[in-house]
Design goal:
4 helices
């Protein structure tokens, strides 16, 4: 994955298509599902600072997705709650702004024109098309250090070389510390371009795999630079082996199509501006079962759609006066 300001020698293009956890999902028994949705959302949002002088907003509801035939009970969930940690990820798809959009926009310089794009949420399993412009935001309710690794996926099931695409010194000067309410955006708003464009780097590329890792301490031997950092396959395999085991994925009910808010824009631009309990939650929450001394890791599969037509951007119009 790359944009024009962050090159990678092994990639000829960049992409995000649809995200799915590449790990075991544990559905709950039917009678416990609604209760668990509330527990996950409340635990995540309540870790954020409260907004001063305002009553707490209604906690959003989430739906358990990506299930298998295996079930767990609420009793076992509560018994293992000390070993459960969450990670929030939102995929934003950019569409041409229209006059009715009330929220903030992404302004992109295209030739002599400034084009306005509106980010809107998509569920993690939404198929996108070649040419789609996509951004990513990540939030951890617990303090730690965030790392995002990207690898190309090919039709023969093999993967390309791993690259560390976050942290880099281009985003928050390389500061990858996360805490409740702090929003990390990839690419950063100040990047040019400040989005990824869906493109295959070669004909047999079927997708990409993002490994999103949160550790209690900084990983040894990692020195962020202005570009993506090449990693060894063995190094990444060791991190994956030492990290998470079981993952549940929850999607925000009614979140799809919601547009970027001013609070999210400000939190992503300024690392000191934290999201509060009244601000929107992430579109997707991953609940990971780990031991207390383990990092958490979520693998997000980015799969290309072979049947979709390229996106036409003729509807995007220049911003008057810019």
């Amino acid at each position: 994955m790359k944009n024009s300001t962050r090159s990678r020698q092994a990639l000829a293009g960049s992409a995000l298509l649809f995200a799915a956890v590449a790990a075991f999902a544990m559905p709950l028994a039917a009678q416990d599902t609604d209760t668990t949705r509330g527990i996950v959302a409340e635990e995540f949002v309540k870790t954020r600072p409260a907004k001063q002088g305002a009553a707490s907003a209604k906690v959003p509801s989430y739906k358990l997705v990506g299930t298998t035939s295996k079930t767990v009970t609420m009793a076992s969930l509560r018994a293992n709650s000390a070993d459960a940690r969450e990670l929030g990820i939102t995929i934003w798809r950019l569409r041409p702004s229209v006059s009715g959009d009330g929220g903030p926009r992404i302004l992109v310089q295209e030739g002599a024109d400034t084009i306005a794009w509106t980010p809107e949420r998509v569920p993690s399993d939404t198929p996108l098309r070649q040419g789609d412009r996509v951004r990513l935001s990540i939030e951890s309710p617990r303090t730690g250090y965030l790392y995002v690794i990207d690898r190309e996926q090919y039709a023969n099931k093999q993967q390309g070389d791993p690259y560390l695409i976050f942290p880099t010194t281009r985003i928050n000067n390389g500061d990858n510390k996360v805490t409740a309410g702090r929003l990390v955006e990839i690419p950063a708003q100040e990047d040019r371009p400040n989005y990824f464009t869906l493109r295959q780097s070669r004909p047999d590329q079927s997708g990409e795999v993002l490994s999103v890792i949160v550790t209690d301490k900084p990983l040894e031997g990692i020195t962020p630079g202005p570009k993506a950092l090449a990693l060894s396959a063995d190094q990444v395999a060791n991190w994956e082996q030492a990290s998470s085991t079981q993952v549940q994925r929850f999607e925000m009910t009614g979140g799809a199509g919601k547009t970027w808010t001013k609070a999210e824009q400000e939190a992503g631009l300024d690392g000191t501006r934290l999201l509060t309990q009244d601000d929107p939650g992430p579109q997707t929450i991953y609940r990971v079962t780990v031991k207390s001394d383990q990092p958490i890791l979520v693998k997000v599969g980015l799969k290309y759609s072979n049947t979709s037509k390229p996106v036409k951007t003729a509807a995007a119009k220049p911003v008057p006066g810019l």
